[in-house]
Every structure is written in structure tokens, then in C-alpha cells.
Amino acid sequence: MALEVAAGEFVVGDFPFASGETLPELRLAYQTLGSPDKPGVLAMHGTGGSGNQFLQPHFAEPMFGPGGLLDAAEHYVILPDAIGHGRSSKPSDGLRGRFPSYCYDDLVRAQHRLVTEHLGVRHLRLVMGTSMGGMHTWLWGSRWPGLMDGLVPLASLPTQIAGRNRMIRKMMIDAIRLDPDWRNGEYAAQPRGLRAALYLLFMMSSSPLAQQRAAPTRDEADRFVVEWLDHRLARTDANDFLYQVASSRDYDPSPDLERIEAPLLAINSADDEVNPPELGILERLMPRVKRGRYVLLPITEATRGHGTHTLPAVWGDHLKAFLARDLAR
Q1: pTM of this structure
Q2: Is the per-residue pLDDT at 1 higher than 90?
Q3: Residue 61 shares a structural domain with residue 152
Q4: Containing domain of residue 181, as a range?
Q5: SS3 for the chain, per residue?
């Protein structure tokens, strides 16, 4: 299956950041599927990703392909690269450690301007996202409550990042910043602290059962880690990664959950070490969302821990039921 993908760029002059800094020219890259006269769908990616993750066959075919849940022939699908990610403006473009210290508030404001100003979309049928994009989905629902018909945040929680989640993020940030080779972002070669930060990312986002299946012997486990790290090091810049992880510092939609008007379906998985179900956060906060409910996917051979969010084969039936019941026109 070959989907017709249109790539574009929205350039914003003198974009103001929550930190008080300004970027004379902010570049926001995006891709779209389908026609703008169809109902709009906004899909937002996770930390370190880009809109390209939604164009991989295992996601794109069941979601956007012919007869898919969000068939691109019947929808206008918008896949932005967040600030600091993909082809959008980021530290590694040249500013390095002098790039504005962006946060989630900046990311969602920029995406909102992309959708409403540049693309001219005034209403969306669905706003959805995975991991960081799931967190942004909660923010979209509370900040622009009348803009969408439905919300589907995957692999996320609607509260401040704290506890183990924040502790690991703090360790990743410090692994880079406290490395003398980082040189306040002006390094000549990637600092060694990036390797330590990526090790922490692996442990944070992995799940025991999935890793056991992937590497059931000692030698396979060693090889798996080496190959995973080599792959990540080849495509990761320390400043970009540092900014991406640090940008979650202001996230906390919990005070505004009552503002969400659209039906909302949160989907998490029981083997997600980033959002562990034993914290009971969704059970405690979801009653404050007027038309909200959540699904906790049980651990199966098909789940992949935090990475389950990009596997529609696992959760697609729940989305299908939500679209038919809650978003039926």
C-alpha cells in the first residue's frame, strides 16, 4: 500500500517561548494525508520521534489505508513534527545550547497555530497522540475544548510527571549536562553522557516480558542491547535529546480536566513501565473528565510495554468502538 503523503513547512516569525525567549524564525514541519475538505485528524508523536512514526506500515495500513479506522480517503490526517523533533527547528540545527528552552506549552501552542492558522482547520474530528503526543492530547482537550469531536491519548497520564518517571528523566538530563564533554552544548563530538542517558531510556521504556521474548539467551540479550544502542547513537544528538526530555517539566493538565468537553478515550497498557497502572492515577482522575473513560490493555504476547502505543493491532478495536459510539455523526 502506498499512501499519498504531502510534506510541508510552516515558518513562524518571532515565536515567543514560555521561558521569555524568542526565536526569530521557528520552522514547523508536517505531513498530511487526504484532502483538507474532509474531517480533520491530528496525530502527535512521542519524545524523540516525528510524524514519520505514523507512516510505518504496521501503523499506517490499519489506520489510514483503504478501509482503515481513519481512512485517508475519508479524513484529512495531520502529522506534525513537534518543536525540537524531526525536521522542525531544533538545537542541532546550529544554535545548540543557545536554542530556546522550550516546554510542552510551547509545543502545543505551535501545533495549534500550525493547524488553525497555516492549514486553516477550524475543527478536528479527532485529536490523538502517543506518549508525549498523548500528553499533548490531554492539553489540547483542556485548552481548546470546542475544537475537536474526540480525544484519544495513548500511553500517557493527565498529571504532573513525578516519582520514578521524573527521577529517570532527571538522571538522563544530568548524565548529559554533568559530562565535561558536553561543554554547555558546544561539544565537538557527542558527549559520553549521551550513552548513559540512552541506557536509562531503554530501561524506562522496556518491559520484562517483551525483552525476554526478544532475547531469551545471554548472548542474544547482549547483542540486542548493542544493536539498539548503536542504532540510537547513530541518529541522536545530545542537545536535541536533552531538550526533548527536559521539555516535560511544565506538564500538568490535572487542574483543568473539567474543561475537557469532547468524549475522551485513554488507552494504556499494563506492562508500560513509564505509566505503571499500579499508581492508580487514571482511576483517580478520570471521573473529573465529563465524557472520559479509559482502557487498560492486559499484558499479552502482542503488547510491547510503552511501545504498545504504536501497535493498532493491539488497541484498534477499542478505537473502532469509540469512533462508532462516541463520534458517530
Answers
A1: 0.97
A2: no
A3: yes
A4: 163-247
A5: CCCCEEEEEEEEEEEECCCCCEEEEEEEEEEEECCCCCCEEEEECCCCCCHHHHHCHHHHHHHHCCCCCCCCCCCEEEEECCCCCCCCCCHHHCCHHHCCCCCHHHHHHHHHHHHHHHCCCCCEEEEEEECHHHHHHHHHHHHCCCCEEEEEEECCCCCCCCHHHHHHHHHHHHHHHCCHHHHHHCCCCCCCHHHHHHHHHHHHHCCHHHHHHHCCCHHHHHHHHHHHHHHHHHCCCHHHHHHHHHHHHHCCCHHHHHHCCCCEEEEEECCCCCCCHHHCHHHHHHHHCCCEEEEEECCCCCCCHHHHHHCHHHHHHHHHHHHHHCCCC
